[in-house]
Amino acid sequence: MLVSVYRYNPETDREPYMQDVEVSLLEGKDLMVLDVLNLIKEKDQSLSFRRSCREGVCGSDGVNMNGKNGLACITPLSDVAANGKLVVRPLPGLPVIRDLVVDMGVFYKQYQRIKPYLQNSSQTGNHERLQSPEDRAKLDGLYECILCACCSTSCPSFWWNPDKFVGPSGLLQAYRFLADSRDEATEERLAELDDPFSVFRCRGIMNCVSVCPKGLNPTKAIGHIRDMLLSRAT
Amino acid sequence: MTTLRKVSFDAVVIGGGGAGMRASLQMAQSGFKTACLSKVFPTRSHTVSAQGGITCAIASADPKDDWRWHMYDTVKGSDYIGDQDAIEYMCSVGPEAVFELEHMGLPFSRFENGRIYQRPFGGQSKDYGNGGQAARTCAAADRTGHALLHTLYQANLKNETTFLNEWFAVDLVRTDDGDVVGVIAIEIETGDVVFVESKATVLATGGAGRIYASTTNAHINTGDGIGMALRAGYAMQDMEMWQFHPTGIHGAGTLVTEGCRGEGGYLVNKDGERFMERYAPNAKDLAGRDVVARSMMTEILEGRGCGENGDHVYLKLDHLGKEIVHSRLPGITELSKTFAHVDPAVMPIPVVPTCHYMMGGIPTNVNGQAITQVDGRDTVIPGLYACGEAACVSVHGANRLGGNSLLDLVVFGRAAGIFIEEQLQQGIEHTIASSDDIDRAVGRLRALDDNDTGEDTATLKRELQSCMQNYFGVFRDGEYMKKGREELDSMRERIADIAIGDKSKAFNTARLEALELQNLFEVAEATAISADERTESRGAHSRRDFPERDDKNWLCHSLYHPRSQKLTRREVNFSPKTVETFEPKERTY
Predict the structure, then answer these.
(1) With contacts defined as CB-CB under 8 Å, which chain A residues touch B115?
(2) Model-level pTM?
(3) Which of A127, A138, B47, B451 could form a cystine bridge with B149, CB 3.0-4.6 A?
(4) ipTM above 0.95, yes or no
(5) Would you tell me which CATH number, out of the four given (3.40.50.300, 3.10.20.30, 3.50.50.60, 3.40.50.720), belongs to the domain A2-102?
């Protein structure tokens, strides 16, 4: 099988290039893209990429495969390269450190910006805060985010304004805390998002939804934040 | 002489998993200059893969639940070589540590009354084994590790811990006086080598499941802390004790939580028989993991395995109905579809025992202080601490109960943090590292970079993993282990002499993988020698040539000494502070 991989080593390459590699696969066995990258690396140790859990929960190996962002470890070749050719590039829109490894600094900064931690100053003592199953259910579809950046790096609004638009991942997490019945900082959280860029740069393109490897829906969460901001203004 | 960039902290925690981040959080909260150094961005750590929950007697499912019952179960689960003072500490402090996580925001699942949801897990009983199955495992659906790890990262952000993300620790820096004063680390993005100086160095580097060919562990679980400690000459405890999780997905090795069986799933052989009824008539599929894993292997070896090659059994969940499977086990549904191509609400999942957890590790006391032995007596190593899977405190003994690893992480990460805080307040004085001390710690890295002829990492790693898989798996035998040890002997020099084909600096993962393989080898060798020398069967260590537990000779920890490659015995603690000792009994489920 022909695999075309994005290569760039800042110490030796003046500019990035695509390298074609022929990978021999076992007949009848459907590999994940990560397995293919590992096979290539066995032959050419200089290929760099991130990987950890290899089961789609750690979010290390977000890459762009045949034009679509996803996790290499849970993307079967049969899904992504049905035409017999696989093209692997780094996540778009972030600076490349080397090969498939991108600098996620700006992505993490947007995550930090939304204060991704529960804010509640009440004393609780040595027992848990109560939360009804219905209130807890409001966090489903939000807390499962693995910070892989597949969504934000597929978002044209994030490409344009990565410093000012929080992006789908960060906003999904912002809503995770807005929606938590235990959190008391709703007003402060909304105030910090209330400007033309942080939330309202979302144009409802929904690339984030189509690429999320966990099946989450950031656009919907952004819609909820939008509603909260608007009803706050009136 | 080497001049390296130096950064200094009050405390540095190596590892950004649950234990490491709980420790760093504790110290950052008190305002100490704390760094958490991790070779991956912290939420990529392997704690993220924990599924079923954190076992702890918070008395939610059963208001009468008692931490002493949990303690009894854990002592029994350990096959009586867990230290009872440490188990007492973990089970009694546990509720406080779990409530703290809830306060930080961990999105636990809930019961109707709003309290934390708890599910049944293996080896958990009420009333010291007399009251039937207990539901004691606190869960966030089947993504508890993910929820826990992200919550801890968030709490560390809030408390402004310094994160050295994507830094790789190479070796400990030790002075001539034997003080540990920090580590040598590679900043992965640039390839720069840095001396991270610290008054307290905490190894929270997790497990090393990658010594086996088939494992539930992440690629990053390469025993880096164990490797560093062994190279420094420190003894390791109970390294023969490896848990094989009953339900790894056949072929892929990915984990399927014990919570599946807690929710009512069970195992069947090729005849559709629920075979655990034969091996553990009371607890059945929720017997200790070692018991279930051995039963499965016996079914497979006696020709009752499933599939074309009869090399696995089935985990049946479809009788629970779509509603339960999809709502309580959403992550499992996803994993089964991806890696086994089955929807567990419709079809059974093909599973096989898979290497999962290292019960052994760096011996520590309940304060996280690393211990070594001098002339047969316990001695604290100045400046060095350990917690989590890398440590052996020892709460798991010869077999860990499900859900006890997450509890171990937060309780002992926290305990180490609290103790180091106190030490820092009193003032910690170490000798200053000389340039010779630093040169020594950089030696391995320099040798790797200077070496041009040698074998490659991938080939050697495969050889190591298949050796461990073949000779040191679920069932062990002296004759086979001798062969295994011979193979390992032949690998030592070759792995020390790896040549990497890429010597560039920026994000060079070839260099890291070679350093990781050297750590894996240290772990594998300690495991092999400890397993061969412990001539009995206990917990996860099961020998065909010594099938019985031998309390007369082996009701003790093993200590593997890397310099002499010899095994000695260390006493198990049988003196809990507030309850009566649990005396060893025959262990049945």
Answers:
(1) 128, 130
(2) 0.97
(3) B47
(4) yes
(5) 3.10.20.30
